[in-house]
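To: structure subgroup
Subject: Chain for Friday's discussion

All,

I'm putting the inputs and outputs inline so they're searchable in the archive.
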Amino acid sequence: MRILFYVLRNLHLPHMMPVYEWMTANNVCGSELSFSSARFIPSTTDRAGFGLESNNIRFLIERGIKWIPEEQIIPYHPDIIVMADADFMNGIDRIGARIVNVNHGLISKGIFYSDSPLTGRENSADLICVPGPYHRDALKRRVYKPVIVSGLVKFDRIFSGEITRDTVLNKLGIDPQKKVILFAPTFNKELSAVPIVTDSVCDWVSDDVHLVIKLHNASPPEWFELYRLIGDSDPRITLVDDLDITPCLVAGDVMVSDVSSAFMEFIALDKPVVLLNNPLRTRFIGFDPRDIEYTWRRVGLEVDKTEDVPRAIEISLNNPAERSNIRRLYGTRLIGPSDGRASERIGKAIWTLAYADSGKRFNEDRVLTDQQVKI
């Protein structure tokens, strides 16, 4: 049984690697696990990039992961292909393998978890794994394929205690006594806070406050260069250029964002957010005011002007418990189970799908039954 993890974009790796690692550690069915990706195309101001850069591929190979070049996927003949995005299948849905979509975000952008006909693309998968009950219920309007609530894979390391604030700050060289502002914008120029705030982020910091900037991985190179220069000139500002934002979420005390999934992940940890509105947002091709990134904005302090951001940050730092009730209410619906077992649920579901025709199930000792995972 060959199970291939196909990475459409590098930001999908944090949603797929924990599943791969859990399946590798519990591979009692003898399946062969491997990775592949789309051909690398870098991001630009107008378009998010695709695929994995050579350093990402080298990272996987050095970890002992079997790598399948994209042009060899068809002769490799995988039985199951695991993806994290139904937005652009890249022809994967036409090669005959069964597809599992583990999903990678919490919001809509007019494409995901919405009432748009585009949501019907999820039906290209044979099994869909979503973080929380909100996403399951949203898909029911357009999707007829099996959907399971797994929890948010990225959060497994948080709930297990593997990631802690002190360890993250120590790695970043930040004084744990300082408050940490996390700036985590999205990448679309019509939606992102970056074109609005640019270098005014320097006004957010003080001797008692450190700013951590974590750009969306699909952001254009010039945004990374801007904040790398700013971070190099001010020791109170750190640009984090890792694929996974999760450690930054743990380290942050308040987040400044826009309509990024990151702000939903932050409120799911019951932390305050400041949400800056891009005045061009209604021009975004997928703009839909009914999407949760707009209808749920009362979870944070919403601002329209750059000059209002510092005051909103101050309010959030001084009274972090404000809006906690609504954050916890929405957060539970977004990320589902908080037991650190999301990767396990998805891994078991993949194996159940893989061996469905033969009647074989995951190791009986591990108590996976048809009642626990129905497909």
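Points worth raising on Friday:
The mean pLDDT is 90.
Residues 161-335 form a domain with the Rossmann fold fold (CATH 3.40.50.12580).

D.
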